[in-house]
Design goal:
heterodimer; A: mainly beta; 3-stranded antiparallel beta sheet; 9 strands; B: alpha+beta; Alpha-Beta Plaits; Dna Ligase, domain 1; 4-stranded antiparallel beta sheet
Chain lengths: 91, 406
């Protein structure tokens, strides 16, 4: 992952962990609504940005999402249909 | 009589930083700098509106920015993210005309001639585009829009328009009023050197340039000076170029973290840059006959060498062989901070046989290696010399014309 972030006061964590995601298929889009990470369930309140990237044969969709207190970056890997959490930011 | 053209220029404000703030809403309202590198000497490619208000502009180093605002947030640029957002806003522009010229990652020209009745309806389209970008791409993304009858004037209007707004230059009278007392360097295409040349002719403002004699400026400054005169007089000298032009050169550079005179280390960096250059060259089906090597010293100055070779280069090995030879010929008096390699004199690839070596086998091998890297990801298979160079010279993005393919 290219995004390396230099935040103050350790508010940012770079991660690479598998997560379970509950998604909704709506208006032709995939919308992650909830995800489960480290035995906690998080509600996605807002999808701020979706972008994709090709890495070899794999196409990865990145969802930059947030709730009231956290920002998360979730990645969906089309090659094996897996989800991973890659970034966490909290205040 | 021909109807006047209606050209719209759109420029996204504080683009990379705004995209980052769009992705992470907790960054909004804070000074953010998107950098090429996060080292103290790293340069800020885009500062957020909040950083600009504190005087931290694009081009400022991380060290200086931290001095001004110790709380500032620095992010390493993420090209895939910006390209994806650019694709989305270019798609919106394409809904209004088939004449869209992507000028850079965050700028485009749109020819609305025949699609908008007049400047007033073009302004309505501009507002619609602005609202659609906010709704369909991201609510934090702002843009400046300029509208006029030439590309230059549309860009000039967009550049001087207050942020988040649209400025129209309707006619010659309005143009003269806008150009009055405008600094020469505010115009697209006039740098410090050209400003000095224009000053020597008694031209000190853009209005002076507009009022200057066209024949005289052509005699004194050649065609380029004449083009500048045409620009400020509202005469079009170029049209909307839909799609990308064929490249004249292909190259890569890297600001090395370990400033060094060690030729073995520099060759490893060079090898990776040559591989990236070769990958792009082959993906475009081209070969090259000229190679340039640039080495910038930590101190002022550097070395710049260019060489035209007999056999055309196609494989990364062809490029690296020449580049390494050029590197070894140099006397490095100071440590190097930037290594750059580029190839030019491009032509479509052919399978012409060489008298001296079997190049077709090497070409086929290169293409096979490219297929492996396409399938398993960049640098899945590399030359032995590139071991240790995995994190070097990663994907970077610039503001000039660039491909939106990652």
């Amino acid at each position: 992952m290219i995004c390396v972030v230099c935040y103050v006061k350790n508010m940012y964590e770079k991660l690479d962990e598998k997560i379970d995601v509950l998604v909704e298929f709506t208006d032709g889009n995939v919308v992650p609504n909830y995800f489960r990470w480290q035995d906690r369930t998080y509600k996605v309140e807002k999808i701020n940005l979706v972008h994709s990237e090709r890495k070899g044969n794999d196409k990865i969709y990145y969802f930059s999402v947030s709730n009231n207190v956290n920002f998360f970056r979730l990645a969906f890997f089309t090659r094996d249909l897996s989800w991973r959490i890659q970034e966490l930011y909290y205040e | 009589m021909n109807k006047p053209r209606i050209i719209l220029h759109i420029d996204m404000n504080s683009y990379f930083a705004s995209v980052e703030q769009q992705a992470n809403p907790f960054l909004r309202g804070r000074a953010v700098g998107v950098c090429a590198y996060l080292s103290p000497n790293g340069i800020i490619l885009a500062s957020s509106r909040e950083a600009k208000e504190k005087g931290i502009k694009t081009g400022c180093s991380v060290r200086d920015a931290k001095f001004i605002d110790p709380e500032m947030i620095f992010l390493e640029n993420e090209p895939a993210k910006y390209r994806a957002v650019t694709k989305k806003f270019f798609a919106i522009l394409a809904d209004y005309t088939d004449q869209v010229e992507p000028y850079s990652i965050d700028e485009a020209f749109v020819d609305l001639t025949g699609w908008a009745k007049d400047f007033s309806s073009a302004e309505k389209i501009a507002e619609e585009i602005r609202n659609r970008i906010k709704k369909e791409v991201g609510e934090w993304l702002e843009c400046s829009i300029g509208i006029s009858w030439t590309k230059f004037l549309a860009k000039f209007a967009g550049d001087i328009a207050p942020k988040k707004s649209t400025l129209i230059i309707h006619n010659q009278n309005e143009l003269a009023l806008i150009l009055k007392n405008r600094n020469l360097k505010e115009a697209w295409g006039i740098n410090k050197r050209m400003e000095i040349k224009l000053n020597s002719l008694g031209i000190f403002s853009l209005l002076d340039l507009k009022n200057y004699d066209a024949g005289k400026i052509k005699r004194k400054l050649g065609l380029y000076g004449y083009y500048l005169w045409c620009h400020v007089n509202g005469q079009e000298i170029s049209h909307i170029n839909v799609g990308s032009e064929a490249p004249k050169s292909i190259g890569h550079s890297y600001c090395i973290p370990k400033k060094s005179k060690d030729k073995e280390y520099l060759a490893m960096v060079l090898c990776k840059l040559c591989e990236k250059t070769g990958r792009r060259l082959r993906s475009l089906g081209l070969e090259a006959q000229r190679i340039s090597l640039n080495l910038a010293f930590v101190e002022v100055g550097g070395i710049s060498k260019s060489l035209k070779i007999q056999d055309k280069m196609f494989t990364s090995e062809d490029i690296f062989k020449q580049a390494e030879k050029m590197l070894n010929e140099q006397n490095l008096i100071f440590p190097i901070r930037i290594v750059a390699v580029s190839v030019s004199a491009l032509s479509p690839s052919s399978n012409q046989m060489s008298f001296f070596e079997n190049k077709i086998i090497q070409k086929d091998l290169s293409l096979a290696l490219d297929k492996i890297n396409n399938k398993y990801g960049e640098f899945a298979i590399v030359r032995g010399q590139m071991f240790g160079a995995r994190d070097m010279a990663q994907d970077r993005i610039g503001f000039r014309k660039c491909s939106l393919d990652s």
